[in-house]
Sequence to fold (150 residues):
Amino acid sequence: MTTITWLSFMVITAIASFFVGTVFTKRQYENDELEKEVEKAKNELEQYKQDVADHLASTDKLVDKMKDNYEQLATHVQQTNKLLLVDNTKETMPFFSKETTEQLQASLDQLAEPKAHANITDAQPTDYAQEHSGIFSGEKETKPTKEAVS
Fold:
């Protein structure tokens, strides 16, 4: 009986060891999977941090470009304002001589009142005829007969 006892003890130990090994192996496998997932999550987090840092760097470059463009635009506007607001009271070379300008001014002063200021509401238009004329005169034109012509 000792042999059978030993054999049964060995079989029971082998079966128990198999189950215990399976449980520990399963736990170890799950731990390894969890460690892989943790490592993957850490790598994804690092990649995300790097992407955010790259994005912020490119945004910073764009903001710097925009700031430079704004400064150039502001400088351009200031220069344009200076050009447009130049003091026009400075003496400029006249188109006509002084005598010619005086004569033109005198002739302008002598002109009659401009037509824009004249009271034209009472006047008739210049192409208006008071009496019938032309084909509307009411007179019939008589054609000469053959006898009158000869």
